[in-house]
């Protein structure tokens, strides 16, 4: 499929997506979000693809957020539709049952920061920076920033970033548990490949159950969340992946998981 706003490449079990609007700092618009949903269609239906890796074209930006030039003339109803599209897209990415990695290779502002927060993991270049500047524009983050950021870094730090609109460095984002690892620019790709290899050799069934347990369980009481964990683990125990994992352990070999 030909894309206007994305570069999409499948490499083994990994589907790589590059946000491809470098002249606009890879800003989000309706066209890009619509194409991203087509990528999610492929990611969801193809059992051979186990991981989605997302980055931005060029060296300046992962994604600078929503395209302000396209938003400035929107009516309230049009703005609601645009925000709803982004929220549905990011929530779909978050709950699709397969992991994703945001490779933040430059600035991640507004919706770009929010896109990274919707991913399972975040790997940042040492030159990356993060911010939610909507408060300086008379808006608020509209793609989940007010909800996901406090869940990741805590209410206090989240409010600091939300109320000031300031940027933080990759290192500070790491210290605040927003990103999982910071890598030098020349080792960033190697870091991503190592994480991808580690994740893709694990059981897709286990990964799907873990992601559901963490996502759904975070909204439940501890007792109900533990019950959910028990039920999901029981389902995993009846899978071919579990049988293969146990057999491989007893036979002292590496397992070959099929995601069934």
Automatic annotation (TrEMBL):
Matches recorded under Gene3D superfamilies: 2-enoyl-CoA Hydratase, Chain A, domain 1 (3.90.226.10), Lyase 2-enoyl-coa Hydratase, Chain A, domain 2 (1.10.12.10)
Pfam family, one: ECH_1
InterPro entries: ClpP/crotonase-like_dom_sf, Enoyl-CoA_hydra/iso, Enoyl-CoA_hydra_C
Source organism, top-level taxon: Bacteria
BP-aspect Gene Ontology terms: fatty acid beta-oxidation
GO molecular function: hydro-lyase activity
Alphabetic keyword roster: Lyase
Similarity comment: family membership: Belongs to the enoyl-CoA hydratase/isomerase family.
Descriptive protein name: Enoyl-CoA hydratase
Naturally occurring in which organism (per UniProt): Peribacillus cavernae
């Amino acid at each position: 499929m030909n894309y206007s706003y994305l570069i999409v490449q499948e490499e083994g079990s990994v589907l790589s997506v590059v946000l491809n609007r470098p002249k606009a700092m890879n800003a989000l618009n309706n066209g890009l979000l619509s194409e991203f949903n087509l990528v999610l269609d492929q990611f969801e239906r193809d059992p051979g693809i186990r991981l989605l890796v997302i980055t931005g074209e060029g060296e300046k930006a992962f994604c600078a957020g929503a395209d302000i030039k396209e938003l400035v003339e929107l009516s309230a109803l049009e703005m609601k539709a645009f925000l709803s599209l982004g929220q549905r897209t990011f929530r779909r990415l978050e709950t699709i049952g397969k992991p994703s990695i945001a490779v933040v290779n430059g600035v991640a502002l507004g919706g770009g920061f929010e896109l990274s927060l919707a991913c399972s993991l975040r790997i940042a270049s040492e030159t990356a920076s993060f911010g939610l500047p909507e408060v300086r524009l008379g808006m608020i983050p509209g793609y989940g920033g007010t909800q996901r950021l406090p869940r990741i870094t805590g209410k206090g730090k989240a409010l600091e970033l939300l109320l000031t609109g300031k940027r933080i460095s990759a290192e500070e984002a790491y210290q605040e548990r927003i990103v999982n690892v910071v890598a030098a620019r020349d080792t960033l790709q190697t870091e991503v490949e190592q994480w991808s290899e580690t994740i893709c050799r694990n059981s897709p069934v286990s990964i799907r159950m873990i992601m559901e347990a963490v996502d759904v369980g975070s909204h439940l009481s501890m007792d109900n969340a533990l019950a959910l964990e028990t039920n999901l683990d029981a389902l995993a125990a009846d899978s071919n992946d579990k049988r293969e994992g146990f057999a491989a352990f007893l036979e002292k070999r590496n397992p070959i998981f099929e995601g069934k």
